[in-house]
Amino acid sequence: MISSQQRFYHTGATRSVRFRKEQLLLLRQAAQRLEPEMMDALKQDLNKSEQEAYSTEIGIILNEIRVALRNVRRWSKPKRVRTPLTHIGGSSRIVPEPLGTTLIMGPWNYPLQLMLVPVVSAIAAGNTMVLKPSELAPATSGLLARLIRETFPPEYATVVEGGLETSTELLKRPFDHIFFTGSPAVGRVVMAAAAKSLIPVTLELGGKSPCIVHKDANIELAARRIVFGKWTNAGQTCVAPDYLLVHKEVKTALLNKMSEVIEEFYGREPLQDPDYGKIVNGRHFRRLLDLLDDDVRIVHGGQSDEITGKLAPTILDGVTLESKAMQGEIFGPILPVIVYEGTEEILNTVRAHPKPLALYLFSGSREFQQRIIERIPFGGGCVNDTILHLANPYLPFGGVGTSGIGSYHGEFGFQAFSHYKSILKQSDRFDLPFRYPKSKWGLRMI
Ligand code: NAD
C-alpha cells in the first residue's frame, strides 16, 4: 500500500495546483453527500447533537476546504526573496514542495474533524496520505474509511482501521511525515518510533488548559462562554478549559451564574438531555468517576449513569494542587476550581504543570491581559472567550512543549505538510574571483 502511494507520488500527479483543487472539490462533495451519515456516526460514537456535529466537525472541515481552495495557488507559488550583495548576479527563491507519502493518525473526540482537516492540508500541499482513525470511535472510523474509499484511489489516499497493533505496524513504515493528534503519552511513542528513521512529525497533543477569571471580568458573559467551552462534547475536547482559576472576589458570583447557565443549556436533569454528550467508553467513565472520589466538594452536578455513559456537568470546589483532578488532563465534564488573589498564585498553579495547549482569560483590563499572555507559555487561546480560536483558520493551531510540536489550520497546515526548498540561482555570465583560494581580490576584501 505504501509502495503504491510512493510510486503514485513519484509520477508527479499530485503536484499541480489543478489536481490539488480537484481533490479538494471531491472531498467537499463527499463531505456534503455523506453529511447525514456523519451526523449518525457522531451520534453513535459520542451522542453529538446535529448542531454540535455541524459546528464542531463538519462545518470546520468545509471551512478549511473553502480556505484551501481559495488560497492554494498562492500558498504553493515559489516566493522570491532578497539576495545579498555578496551573491551578486544571483536570485533567490523559496519553493514549497510536498513531503511525499504521509501518515495521519487521529483521536476519538472529534473523530471526523481531526482526521479530515489534516487531510485538507495534506491535499493542498500535494501529498499522498494514509489515515489511521481512532478505534474508540468505530462508527466514525468506518464511515471515514468509506468516504475515502469512495472518493480517492488507494494509491492517493487510504484509511487503515485498527487499534494498537495496527498503529504499531504503521509506525514502522517509511513515511515521509507523521501527523499525529492524541495524548502526550502516545505522542512520545510516535516520536520515538519516528526517530528510528528520522521521520519528521507534527504532534498535536493535550494538557491542562487553565481558564482564568479576573475580578474585573464580565461575569455573566464569562459564565456562558466557559460553560459552552467546557461542556461541549461533555468536556472531551483537547482545548476545553481544564480547570478554573478565579479571583477570590468573584468566585461565588461566577459559580452561581455557571450553575444557572448549565441548567439553561442542559436542563435540570442533564443525564436525560438527549443532546448532552456521553463519555466515550467505560474505561474513561470510571477514570472520571475516580476523580470525584477525593477530598473535594461537588458544588454542581456529580450525577452519572454508567449504562448511558453520561456524567453530568460537574464543578469541584476545595481543590488543591494535590487533588486527583489537578494531576493529569481531565478530558471530561469535571471542572475543578482554584481561587487566587495575586498574579503570582496564577503563575505558580499553571507552572506546576507542563505548558498547556490552551489558555483562556476573562478580564476587562488590557494590562492584566498582557501580563498573563506574556508570562505564561501556552499553545493558543482566547481573551474573554473559550475554544473559538481553533475555529479561525487564519490562526496557527498547535501546542508548545508537551502539548505539541508544530501547528496547522489554513496556511499553517499547508506549511506543516510542505518542505520549503531554498534555491539560489547564480548567473553564469561572470564569476567573481574573491571567494577562491589565493585570489588577490579575496585578500583585498579581508
Ligand atoms: P490517544 O493518544 O490514546 O490515541 C490517538 C491515536 O493513537 C489513536 O488513533 C490510537 O489508536 C493511537 N494509539 C493509541 N495508543 C497507541 C500506541 N501505544 N501506539 C501507537 N498508537 C497508539 O488519544 P485519544 O485518547 O484518542 O485522545 C485524547 C488525547 O488527545 C487527549 O490528550 C487530548 O488532549 C488529545 N487531543 C489533542 C488534540 C489537539 O488538536 N491538540 C485534539 C484532540 C485530542
UniProtKB/TrEMBL annotation:
Gene Ontology biological process: aldehyde metabolic process
CC terms in the record's Gene Ontology section: cytoplasm
Residues annotated as domain Aldehyde dehydrogenase: 14-423
Transmembrane segments: none
Keywords of the record: NAD, Oxidoreductase
A family per Pfam: Aldedh
Keyword Magnesium recorded: no
Stored Gene3D superfamilies: Aldehyde Dehydrogenase, Chain A, domain 1, Aldehyde Dehydrogenase, Chain A, domain 2
KW Cytoplasm (keyword) present: no
List of catalytic residues: E204, C238
Domain of life: Bacteria
Molecular function terms, GO-annotated: aldehyde dehydrogenase (NAD+) activity
Family statement: Belongs to the aldehyde dehydrogenase family.
Protein name (record): Aldehyde dehydrogenase
Organism field: Cohnella herbarum
